[in-house]
Recover the amino acids of this structure.
């Protein structure tokens, strides 16, 4: 076994590898960008080496810097995690030249499976079933169109060199083929630097089932059963589970043996995943092979009781596989969901910002949390917006679905948008409970999974108001204790009046709904005038934000977070956000008059005017890149540019003043 390894990655996979290595007595070296020096993986490792600026092309994708850090730190091996350089054959070869062990497959195996067309040709020769299609060298439009017509529409055009849904187009009819081919080629060239495509028969409602394989350097290769990854959005997996529902022992064996044949065909070593499409008649077809550990590997670990990272380290160190095929068995059922910082209401646009509040269910034999962030960390524009993976296990699928719902209900995130409620809607959906799974699940049930925003219920308003009032009371008590006279009546916030009830009000806003909430202080708590009628409210608020409340005759437990005028309430697995409107706002809250501010955190990529320039309303002034998209910011009025506040390349915060100018007189 190695004495020290370097993890050439970040986030939850880096933390995952570090924890397993530590259990095996292996020291770890983390690499980090300038933006990640305080990140969880850097803090968890035995040592951390900074390798460059925040952009991945200047840090985590710089093979030379990573290898230099490995050599200087005395590491003997490099674990690539997933993403970044994990499937880069040149990096694997560079590690070998430097005398470092690459904890992954040989470079030749990575190359053999890296191109979709080449991989399918190999699989065809190995007898692995393929989706009917054309994967040939001739890339002329005439040949591709003829192949599409021969297999029958609809067909799928796919970029040969890529993944993640880039360069992929469904073509419903022959007259659409030329335009869709051109679009797929443009996207493939832009994403992968290669516009080669393949054409396959499009399966309308397939399941996406993948097989985990493992091979060593002694000729052994096994399959560790299957995962169903059918619930996807834009070809990106959202929910994964193992074993796949409805799999017969015979189908499992046939798919497993096909996956092992695929691995042997390319001389594979280490952990890999062979991905298949499965139709309703139990026919399966090879899609691609991922030559790395997958994001969804925890569900396989739960049902087998194995640590796949430990297997990776042992195989890379030259040891044989710890188990034979006949020693492996499935126990129970596991489900994983990916919690992302993204806004489902804005077409799942990635969100960036600070994790003001982060709470997960308690890990145990039924619940596992894989995360590379902590409360207070920032989700950056530079990296994947994954917050965590929530993985649950139970003796059967029904129990696992129930535990998934409970785990999601116990998860709380405040400070930025997430897909938490979307995941909860999937977990509660009857079709999910019935295992009616295929790759069109989200599109088919979109109205259920992404319902229109409903008006706030009285209960939510009442709990939010009670939380605010209890928070004020606690702040007053803390202020009193810190003062010279803790018992002074001037510290009181109980609303006492000599001859009358004490009245107050809270102004709350939710979306476009404004509510002015009158209230009366009572000896036992508060009387709230909710839209549906008056209600007595009392309760307690812990320092951790746990609200124990009684509204009338109803008792409720909720999570409560208040930061900078934004109230977030977590109730029965739902998140509700309200703004507390200050009746006496400060002038500073208005921001720079007539100026342009950043609508979100991002990077300035272009300045389209100079200081002193005369501009007209709507004229483009600044271009910034945020959430992997460009945003052009325009002048809100006619006027003169006084100052450009940032240079090209600057990283700016949400709300930062970008341009100061004087508006022209009317």
């Amino acid at each position: 076994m190695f004495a020290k390894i370097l993890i050439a990655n970040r986030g939850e996979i880096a933390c995952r590898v570090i924890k397993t290595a530590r259990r095996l007595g292996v020291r770890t070296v983390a690499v980090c960008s300038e933006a990640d020096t305080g990140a969880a993986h850097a803090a968890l490792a035995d040592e951390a080496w900074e390798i460059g600026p925040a952009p991945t092309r200047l840090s985590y994708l710089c093979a030379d810097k990573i290898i230099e850090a490995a050599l200087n730190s005395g590491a003997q091996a490099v674990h690539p995690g997933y993403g970044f350089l994990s499937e880069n054959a040149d990096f694997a070869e560079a590690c070998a030249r430097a005398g470092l062990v690459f904890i992954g497959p040989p470079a030749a195996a990575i190359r053999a499976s890296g191109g979709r067309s080449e991989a399918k040709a190999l699989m065809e020769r190995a007898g692995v079933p393929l989706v009917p299609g054309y994967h040939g060298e001739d890339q002329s439009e005439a040949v591709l169109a003829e192949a599409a017509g021969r297999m029958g529409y609809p067909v799928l055009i796919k970029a040969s060199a890529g993944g993640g849904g880039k360069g992929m187009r469904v073509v419903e009819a022959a007259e659409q083929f030329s335009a869709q081919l051109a679009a797929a080629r443009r996207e493939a060239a832009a994403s992968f630097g290669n516009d080669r495509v393949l054409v396959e028969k499009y399966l309308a409602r397939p399941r996406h089932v993948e097989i985990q394989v493992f091979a060593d350097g002694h000729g052994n290769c096994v399959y560790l059963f299957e995962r169903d990854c059918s619930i996807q959005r834009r070809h990106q997996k959202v929910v994964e589970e193992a074993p796949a529902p409805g799999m017969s022992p015979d189908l499992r064996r046939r798919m497993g043996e096909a996956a092992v044949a695929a691995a042997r065909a390319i001389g594979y070593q280490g952990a890999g995943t062979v991905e298949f499409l499965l139709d309703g008649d139990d026919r399966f077809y090879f899609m691609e092979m991922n030559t790395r550990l997958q994001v969804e590997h925890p569900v396989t670990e739960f049902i087998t009781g194995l640590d796949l990272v430990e297997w990776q380290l042992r195989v890379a160190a030259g040891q044989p596989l710890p188990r034979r095929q006949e020693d492996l068995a499935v126990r129970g059922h596991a489900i994983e969901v990916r919690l992302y910082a993204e806004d489902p209401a804005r077409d799942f646009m990635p969100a960036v910002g600070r994790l003001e509040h982060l709470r997960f269910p308690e890990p145990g034999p039924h619940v596992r949390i894989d995360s590379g962030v902590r409360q207070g960390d920032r989700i950056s524009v530079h990296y994947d917006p994954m917050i965590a993976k929530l993985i649950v296990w139970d003796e059967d699928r029904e129990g696992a679905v129930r535990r998934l719902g409970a785990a999601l209900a116990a998860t709380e995130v405040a400070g930025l948008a997430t897909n938490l409620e979307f995941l909860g809607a999937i977990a509660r959906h009857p079709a999910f409970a019935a295992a009616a799974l295929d790759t069109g699940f989200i599109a088919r049930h979109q109205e259920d999974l992404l319902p229109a925003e409903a008006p706030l219920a009285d209960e939510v308003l009442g709990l939010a108001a009670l939380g605010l009032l209890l928070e004020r009371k606690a702040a007053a008590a803390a202020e009193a204790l810190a003062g010279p006279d803790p018992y002074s009546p001037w510290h009181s916030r109980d609303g006492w009046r000599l001859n009358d009830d004490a009245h107050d009000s809270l102004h709350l806003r939710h979306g476009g709904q404004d509510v002015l909430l009158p209230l009366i202080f009572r000896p036992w708590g508060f009387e709230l005038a909710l839209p549906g009628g008056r209600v007595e409210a009392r309760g307690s608020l812990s320092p951790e934000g746990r609200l124990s409340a009684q509204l009338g005759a109803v008792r409720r437990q909720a999570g409560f977070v208040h930061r900078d005028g934004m109230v977030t309430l977590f109730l029965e697995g739902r998140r509700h956000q309200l703004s507390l409107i200050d009746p006496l706002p400060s002038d500073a809250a208005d921001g720079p008059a007539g100026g342009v501010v950043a609508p979100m955190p991002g990077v300035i990529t272009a300045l389209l005017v100079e200081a002193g320039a005369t501009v007209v309303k709507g004229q483009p002034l600044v271009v910034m890149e945020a959430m992997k998209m460009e945003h052009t910011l325009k002048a809100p009025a006619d006027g003169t540019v006084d100052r450009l506040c940032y240079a090209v390349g600057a990283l700016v915060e949400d709300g930062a003043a970008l341009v100061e100018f004087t508006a022209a007189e009317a």
